[in-house]
Amino acid sequence: MRFITVILLVCFAFAKANSSTLQSYNRHVVEQGDTMYMLTNKYNVTAAQLIELNPDLKMGLKSGATILIPKSVSAITNRPIESYETHKVKCKETLYSLSKEYGVTELDIKEANKELYSNPLRKGDRIQIPVFAEVAQPKEPIVIDIIPGVTDIVKVADTKAETVKPGQYKVKKSEGKYRVATNNNITIAQLEAWNPDLGELDEGMIVNVVDPKNIPSTSSDSKKLRYIDYEVEPKMTMYSLEKMSGLSADSLIAINPALKDGVKKGMTIKLPYRAVNEKETPELWNSTAKYARLVDSIRNYENQRIAVMLPFSINGLSSDEYGKQLKESNTMRIATDFYSGMMIARDSARALGINVQFDVFDTGRNESTSLKILRDNNFKNYNSVIGPLLAKNVVAVAKELERDKIPVISPLTNTDVQLYKNLFQARPDEQFLMNRLKNYLVNFSRGKNVIIVTDNKNPQYKDEFAPLFPAAKILYPDKNNYISSYKYTSALSKEMENVVILAVDHVGFITDAVSNYAAKARTHDITMVGMDDYDNMNINNMGLAAVNYTYPKMNRHTSSENVFANHYFKKHGITPSDFATRGFDVTMDVILRQASADDLYESALRNGKTVMVENSFEYNKRFTKGFYNEACYILRYQPDLTIEEVELSGYGE
């Protein structure tokens, strides 16, 4: 009888807890004129709490929509969530089966998908499954008082686990086969095939995640890899090291057994590197990045304070003088346009519930002015610094702020970030663009007639491409540094596609090559490839379109009907310039990265490639250096003179 009473009491307690959870929300029907500010004041909640319960609020309030309002702050789960996985519901799947498959509770799934509190799970639904941060397990037994006077002791598993060898994986708490397979980029079928008689998984089990027949020995690996000592920086995680090195967690632990106890700041580990060539500094390996929708990963709603350092050069100028200088100074126009885009980004962030404050400093064009600004102001409270625009000034600022670990974003110019770990180079450098184009060409040119146009006075461009295409026809200029029309056209083939590579930067060669090959475009299949868009050379766009001209660029071309352009036009009455769009893209990326992590450093290491309006960003940290943006586009002229992005799938993207 006593046990029956205990069971009834426990059941009643669970029922009461479940009822409390379901009844811990109010509902509000959005009316015309409602704002986030009004709702937060009316219900005494924060914007972050509202958006966590109602993810659609990130896109703004919609009249007639019903939103959930927490009755108390305790109704919001505070479990540490690292990320979310999207799951498409299959036939006969239930919340219970999904909770077992992913190693989470049913309530965890409901908290991530609020509609499931009132709607059933249906086949075809796409839901979010939370991925929780690992929590260190206590080594001492846990004492639990289940019933007054009766104490149970729950024993903790022996912490002296078996050694995890390369190609093996130690099962974590609550992990099922799906989670283990996903974490190791394999299928459940492979997991079961490589582990015969594998039943239910238990915490601490060691399983094979690579075909045992194909696991290379340590000696074999050491012949292929060279290693460097790397000091772990603050807030780095195992995920960060995996992304940086291109190795799995198990491989990293095999190389560095100390990582079994976790990634710790200041520890020295061995990481592999490979050199592009003997003259270049070796770069850390990098895994292929995925697109990251940071707007769906916002978790840090703390106020952001950003220092904006731009060369407005308005100190001491009257309004009339400023107007005159603005017309004459290209730098002032760029700074003004860039900042106008930044303001749209700030407004957009505030609509998402992220409060951003800009402190604007006029750097002029002087390095000394930039350094004086740093001396006269306390920069320790800034989340980041955007600017200055000029290369020498941004390097000077980064040098001064490196000790305080304040991120400095260089938005427009290519700067030397080798010495400063706090400097983020937002503009892809020329060598990266060249390498991306070569990577694309190697695949695109297979089975085609390759022609390389060269310049005797600048052979370095030919040396970039010629080794990649041993069978290419190379057009050398004569002694007068001139290539005849006959030499251009006689190299073409009618039987196969022609790829013409402009390994030159002289305007004469470029215009001659475009005009000669454009004249043959009706009878020959021609794609011309170069390193620039040639806007400053006034080359006929009709000719470029005729030869399907293809080139790398840091930004793509978009329609003037995009959301940013429409918002910009409403505010300023004009369409945004490329620099205004760049200002929006750089700033919005920084804001969202800081809102999706503890700081910009963590986001750069955790989040992959992001795509904004016209620019994309993938910050990769190089050994002993700063962060480089390694994202760009390959663009191609279309017959109707539009410029479209080339699909890079299969071309090393």
UniProtKB/TrEMBL annotation:
Keywords: Signal. The keyword Signal applies. SUPFAM superfamilies: LysM domain, Periplasmic binding protein-like I. CDD domains: LysM, PBP1_ABC_transporter_LIVBP-like. Residues 1-17 form the signal peptide. One of its GO terms (molecular function) is lytic endotransglycosylase activity. Transmembrane segments: none annotated. The keyword Transport does not apply. Residues 26-76, 85-129 form the LysM domain. This is LysM domain-containing protein.
